[in-house]
Specification:
175 residues; mainly alpha; 2 strands
Length: 175
């Protein structure tokens, strides 16, 4: 049975969550790499947006667990299909872990955190300089891994579009 055209594309909700999260994450990564996050207003923005990404990722994961993913073209080799599945699940894991480690950093430092103006309680994590250093290092490593995987993800989408000339990239684009 041939899938309907709708079954070969992501839903509007799936696309919206994908692009909103991607834009927020790229802003957070740029801020973490290029900006001085120790600046108090910037730090508050960074942590608030990070928590927003966490909320959106919970919604995205819920969407993903209740909606079928459009199949890759039949011409896609099995190893590429497995790599695509693994990459997407790695994104889900990283985009849940990164906000939690950021939240843990603010909790250890005793800083206030808010999400869209609403106060967020601190996580019950052990304090101290050693714990803070470990969590900060973990947060940075996870961010670097996410950046590398995002580059791979973009490269794979472009390869599908320009080399394979299939619709893998177009099915996630708006419209």
């Amino acid at each position: 049975m041939t899938p309907t055209p709708e079954a070969l594309r992501y839903t509007a909700v799936g696309k919206s969550l994908h692009w909103l999260i991607a834009l927020l994450v790229f802003a957070l990564l740029a801020m973490g790499k290029l900006g001085e996050v120790d600046d108090e207003p910037l730090f508050a923005w960074h942590t608030g947006v990070g928590l927003l990404v966490l909320v959106l990722m919970v919604a995205r994961l819920g969407w993903r667990l209740t909606h079928a993913v459009p199949p890759l073209p039949a011409t896609t080799p099995g190893w590429q299909q497995a790599a695509a599945r693994g990459l997407h699940w790695a994104f889900y894991g990283l985009l849940l872990l990164l906000p939690f480690t950021g939240w843990a950093i603010t909790s250890i430092e005793g800083d206030a955190v808010s999400l869209l103006g609403l106060p967020v309680p601190a996580l019950p994590v052990p304090g101290g300089e050693a714990a803070e250093d470990l969590v900060e290092e973990t947060h940075e490593i996870l961010g670097n891994v996410l950046l590398a995987l995002a580059a791979l993800h973009v490269a794979a989408g472009l390869k599908h579009h320009f080399v394979d000339r299939d619709d893998v990239l177009r099915r996630m684009l708006p419209g």
